[in-house]
Amino acid sequence: MEQLFSNLPLLISDSGNSKTLYHIIVIIFAAFAAFIPRYFPILFFSTRKIPEWFNEWMKYVPVSLFTALIVKGIFVTTAGYHFVPFGHVEQILAALVVMVVAYFTRSMAISVVGGLVAVWLLSMVI
C-alpha cells in the first residue's frame, strides 16, 4: 500500500497526452465531495422527528437563496463589487416580470423560464 501512494504522483503525471488516471481520480474525489454533504444530513435526520416550525422555516430557504443570487447578479459589478443601481436595465425589467410570474404561478421553474425569455427579449430590444 505504501508503494502505491509513493508512486501515485508518477501514476497521475502526464504520460504523453493522456491524463486518464488523473481525471478518474479527480472524478472519484468530486463524487465523494458531492456525496458526503448530502448523505450525512439524511443519516442524521432520518432517525429524528423534525419540528414543524423548522419545516415551515426551511420552505423559504430556496427562494431566499435564489433571490440573493439574482440580486447580486443584477446590482453588483464583478470588477470590484460595487453597487450599480441601473447597470443592467434589461435584467431589472426581467426581474420585475419574474416577480409577477412567480406571484401568479407560484412555480420557480416557470419563473426561471419566464425570466430567461424576458431577458432574451429585452436584450434584443434595449
Automatic annotation (TrEMBL):
The chain crosses the membrane at residues 20-40, 60-81, 93-122. InterPro entries: Brnchd-chn_aa_trnsp_AzlD (IPR008407). Keywords: Membrane, Transmembrane, Transmembrane helix. It comes from the Bacteria. This is AzlD domain-containing protein. It comes from Limosilactobacillus pontis.
